[in-house]
Design brief:
The complex is a heterodimer of chains A (444) and B (115). Chain A is of the alpha+beta class and 444 residues long. Chain A is built from 10 helices and 18 strands. In chain A, strand 1, helix 1 and strand 2 form a beta-alpha-beta unit. In chain A, helix 3 crosses helix 4, helix 6 crosses helix 7 and helix 9 packs across helix 10. In chain B, 47% of the residues are buried. The chains are: A alpha+beta (444), B alpha+beta (115).
Chain lengths: 444, 115
């Protein structure tokens, strides 16, 4: 009874929904976290909001809320999510409408804002991890969001909210806040902040700790990955936890899956910076504790940073991608010739100066820059990527690749081409006292 | 945990598993020995120098290595190794998620040649 049960209902913006419903219905959870925001997603959300002020939150919000809110109410599970993206207020108000439609009278929806710091960051703020300042960006900035920590979420839990919606709430902080609230941990208790951050870190990518992103057939086999279950943490008041999943779901929880996630996107394991703590994962114990159960303990921490990280998104023009395939004898040679033709045409005949990359999928693409090539392949695809501020440049590239169908090497087929708008991001820091999170509670 | 390839040169994947992540233009790859008995060989094989020499055009910055002795794991931080980072790279895999298999493809205890 002193165990706090918390699970993940989404580990990224496009994560699966049906296992989340299963988890809430059967998991007896105190809290479920839907982590739906990355550096790219928040920037794209700002663009959506510019186009339509009512949008800018996660496009799956309606579907997720309709499926999960009734289950959460029935189970007494609090939902915490950053699906608000660039428009937490719009997301909260939409959730209120949905709650009323679903007949969930009295449901308390908390909206956390204040992560949008575009009015607070100086125009010449230096970049966090590279030379230069914001003044060097010569295209329109679309948004600036500070990573908010557990201290921004705790007041909503204190207000008894059933659903807590924010924008750039830091991934592990959503888990830490719920755990710290339950056990009454002090924000200055760095060891416990580190322990709760570890639980959040292990759970924030959803199935990446329950067998997702792990399978390597023959060496690391995972059962029933198509029905993989989301993770659950059974957290104790000392901060130790069992990582597990629902019985009768696919996937696996093992010391191997936990270790791979332990250092996912971590640099120095002894100094993992979050808004809440400088977490120390370097001495964490990872022990098998039964069927699909792994115990983690001994995370630590030191003082939290005085600054918060801010993601700055700005217009990145357009990216075009196009390809043609070649198969059979000498497919590699024909594909390579096709690439040479496109390069030559774009540069010499058409005078294009945009960033261009030419890959031969099947021979050398992902690892092309690393210098790794397949020795032999008889089914290859020329893949050309171009980025430019001008959409016309991308259109020109697509036209050139398509023209290979009649003007290129023998036997080419399967042309496809597409153009998408791009957002670029940089990181800067802001003093934490300048960021003032706000709370608004709506009642259905 | 030895793969069934016959007469093949042994590679890191034969003794270890790995996952890659990205932050900006920095990649990190964590690598774990399946068996504690192989950890010494893994450490000997995967030195920062070896990795830097194996992929000089990809890894433009330095390579840091952190050792988690008690978990038989290594964490590599590859600086300036993502062709500008997820939003700038023109690589199909702009996150560099596949970099884990770059390291797993290296030959065990080799002299630094490419896989």
């Amino acid at each position: 009874m002193s165990t706090f049960r918390i699970g993940t209902g989404a580990g990224f913006s496009s994560d699966r929904l049906d296992p989340a419903v299963d988890l809430v219905e059967r998991g007896e959870l105190d809290a479920v976290v839907l982590e739906c925001l990355g550096e790219r997603t928040v920037a794209f959300a700002h663009r959506d909001r510019m186009a339509d002020p009512a949008r800018g939150y996660n496009s799956l919000l309606d579907r997720r809320m309709r499926a999960l809110l009734p289950a959460c109410r029935k189970a007494g599970t609090v939902m915490i999510t950053n699906m608000g993206a660039a428009n937490p207020s719009g997301a909260a108000e939409r959730t209120l409408v949905l709650a009323r439609e679903l007949g969930l009278k009295g449901l308390k929806v908390a909206c956390i804002e204040g992560d949008d710091v575009s009015a607070l960051v100086p125009a010449n703020q230096p970049f966090m991890d590279e030379p230069g300042t914001l003044a060097d960006i010569d295209t329109p900035v679309v948004g600036m969001n500070a990573y908010l920590g557990a201290d921004a979420i705790l007041p909503a839990l204190g207000a008894g909210a059933d659903v807590i919606i924010g924008g750039r709430l830091a991934d592990p902080s959503m888990f830490l806040a719920a755990i710290a609230h339950r056990f009454g941990w002090d924000a200055m208790d760095t060891a416990r902040m580190g322990a709760g951050t570890l639980v959040g870190h292990l759970l924030e990518c959803g199935m990446q700790v329950t067998g997702g992103y792990f399978a390597d057939p023959g060496i690391k086999d995972v059962a029933n990955l198509a029905q993989c279950g989301y993770p659950i943490a059974e957290v104790q008041s000392d901060g130790s936890a069992i990582i597990t999943k629902l019985a009768d779901t696919g996937g696996c929880v093992s010391t191997q899956t936990v270790k791979e996630q332990l250092l996912y996107e971590v640099h120095d394991p002894a100094r993992y910076l979050t808004p809440d703590v400088t977490a120390d994962f370097s001495r964490v114990d990872v022990q098998a504790a039964g069927d699909n159960r792994v115990k983690v303990s001994n995370a630590g921490g030191t003082k939290r940073p005085d600054t918060l990280k801010v993601t700055v998104g700005f217009d990145g023009g357009f990216q075009g991608e196009a390809g043609v395939s070649y198969a059979g004898p000498a497919a590699q040679e024909r594909g390579r010739l096709a690439g040479e033709i496109v390069r030559d045409r774009l540069a010499r005949v058409l005078g294009n100066k945009s960033d261009l990359r030419v890959d031969l999928i099947g021979v050398s693409s992902l690892f092309a820059t690393a210098g790794v090539r397949a020795a032999d392949a008889q089914d290859v695809r020329l893949h050309v990527t171009l980025r430019s501020r001008a959409k016309e440049d991308a259109e020109l590239m697509l036209w050139e690749v398509e023209s290979l169908l009649c003007c290129g090497p023998a036997g080419g087929g399967g042309y496809r081409g597409s153009i998408v708008p791009c957002v670029m991001t940089k990181s800067v820091l802001i003093a934490r006292e300048r960021v003032k999170p706000t709370l608004r509670v709506l009642v259905a | 945990m030895i793969s069934p390839r016959r007469n093949a040169r042994r590679i890191v994947r034969d003794i270890a598993h790995a996952r890659a992540g990205d932050k900006g233009n920095t990649s990190n790859v964590n690598v774990w020995a399946y068996d504690a008995a192989d950890f010494a060989l893994l450490k000997r094989t995967l030195t920062p120098e070896r990795i830097n020499q194996a992929f000089p055009d990809l890894i433009r910055g330095k390579v840091d290595r952190y050792v988690l002795e008690h978990l038989h794991g290594l964490n590599f931080v590859l600086h300036d190794a993502l062709e500008g980072g997820v939003n700038a790279s023109l690589n199909l895999d702009s996150h560099g998620k596949s970099w884990s298999y770059l390291l797993l493809g290296l030959e065990l205890d080799g002299a630094g040649e490419k896989s």
